[in-house]
Amino acid sequence: MILFDANMILRYLLNDDPDMAKKAEQFIIAGDVFVTIEVIAEVVYVLKGVYHLDRQTTADTVLTFLSLVNCQEHDILEIALHTYATHNLDFVDCVLFAYHKARNIQIATFDKKLLHLLNQ
């Protein structure tokens, strides 16, 4: 199993360095690539903050990538990305909401936007 970091994912998604993108693609084609929620959170942050992708494009891009790799909590990321695309919340708050929705976990927060979503 190979664990990708955010830079490996970003080079693959952006293809801004063809050699690095090709190396990432080779790992993906070979199979057994694994990603974590923490790394995906960094990817979302960079795509939005540095590359200025809108929320929907960011979510769609990451969801497409996730279909190519393994992630232990794919269901959480899927809900979080859909939430991120449609709500004005930080991605980490979307992950918390996803745990609440998918696993019925109570979330303790003072964040008003997250509380509003949790109480819907």
Key terms for this structure?
120 residues; 3% strand; two-stranded parallel ribbon; Rossmann fold; single chain; globular; mainly alpha
Would you summarize the structure shown here?
This protein has 120 residues and is mainly α.
Number of helices: 7
Structural class: mainly alpha
Reading off the top of the CATH hierarchy, the class is best stated as Alpha Beta
The end-to-end distance, rounded to whole angstroms, is 39 Å
Which sheet architecture does the biggest sheet show? 2 strands, parallel
* Annotated CATH topology: Rossmann fold
> How many discrete structural domains?
1
What general outline do the C-alpha atoms trace?
globular
Q: If classified by CATH, what would the architecture be? A: 3-Layer(aba) Sandwich
Overall pLDDT metric = 97
Largest sheet, spatial ordering of strands: 1-2
Radius of gyration: 15 Å
Low-confidence stretches: none
| H/E element order | EHHEHHHHH
Strand content is: under 5%
Count the E strands.
2
- Helical fraction: 55-70%
Description:
- With 120 residues, the protein is mainly α.
- The protein has a single domain (2-118), classed as 3-Layer(aba) Sandwich (Rossmann fold), CATH 3.40.50.
- Helices cover 67% and strands 3% of the residues.
- The chain has helices spanning 6-14, 18-30, 37-49, 55-66, 74-86, 91-103, 112-118, and strands at residues 2-3, 33-34.
- The protein has a two-stranded parallel ribbon with strand order 1-2.
- Helix 1 packs across helix 3, helix 4 runs antiparallel to helix 5 (74-86) and helix 5 packs across helix 6 (91-103).
- 28% of the residues are buried.
- The model has no long low-confidence stretch (mean pLDDT 97).
